[in-house]
Structure formats: C-alpha cells, structure tokens
Amino acid sequence: MNRRFSLRSSAIGYTLAQDLPRTFGFAVKHLIAILLFTLVTAVPASAACLSAGQMREAVASGQAAPLGAVAGQAGGEIVKAQLCQQGGRYVYVLSVLKGGKVTKVTVNASR
C-alpha cells in the first residue's frame, strides 16, 4: 500500500485547503479594522489638516505660528508635524519621540 502525504485530516474531516479561505478572510477583516482604527485616531476629530501650500500661506500671513515657535511645547523630538484647523483655530498635530516612544501631541498654533 502506497501512503502519500495528504492535507486531509481523517480525525477532523476537512482539508487545510478548505480552511485556508476562512483563515485568510478572518485575517483580512482584522487588518482592515486595524487600518480603519489607525486612520480614525491619527488626527483628532474635526481637524482639517492643511496642504503644504496652505500651511506656508497661513504662517506667512501670520494666522498661524511657525513650527519653530511652538516646538518647545512638544516635549520631545518632533518626527512629523501637520498644521490643522480645529474648532476655529490652528493647531499643530505632532508625532513626538520621547523616551523611545512616539506619541501624538496637539499644540496651539493660532496667533
């Protein structure tokens, strides 16, 4: 009798090929949920971030403070900065490296 390797488990009654789509679908659903959560929490609610051109214009017109003027309020090394409008004022949403961890910090940028 010639025994060949089979992905069929006689004890369980299904093949790995039958279970793979369910496992893959489960992983994809969780990956999508994680991505959506990340996008939703990346910027504070009701904050509309400006493009690079809009950011330059807001700083040049004096409506918003330059990043250098508020950098001391960050509490660590700034690794990413976005100028946003939130609640009728300008804020910087900063990714700050402090103690080996990156955290989000929101700093008032209105003048």
Notes on the protein architecture:
This protein is α+β, with helices and mostly antiparallel strands. It folds into 2 domains: 28 residues; 63 residues, no CATH class. Helices cover 36% and strands 32% of the residues. Strands 3-4-5-6 form a 4-stranded antiparallel β-sheet, with no helix packed on it. It has a two-stranded antiparallel ribbon with strand order 1-2. Strand 5 and strand 6 form a beta hairpin. It is elongated and about 55 Å long. The model has no long low-confidence stretch (mean pLDDT 79).
SSE topology string: EEHEHHEEE
Number of DSSP strands?
Answer: 6
Structural class, please? alpha+beta
Radius of gyration: 25 Å
Percentage of helical residues?
25-40%
> Rough shape?
elongated
Give the distance, in angstroms, between the N- and C-terminal Cα atoms: 86 Å
- Ranges where pLDDT stays below 50 over 5 or more residues in a row are none
List keywords for this structure.
single chain; 111 residues; alpha+beta; 2 domains; four-stranded antiparallel β-sheet; two-stranded antiparallel ribbon; 36% helix; elongated
SSE topology sketch:
Layout: E1 8-9, E2 14-15, H1 16-42, E3 47-49, H2 52-60, H3 67-70, E4 77-86, E5 89-98, E6 101-108
Antiparallel strand pairs: 1-2, 3-4, 4-5, 5-6
Short structural description:
This protein has 111 residues and is an alpha+beta fold. It is built from 3 helices and 6 strands.
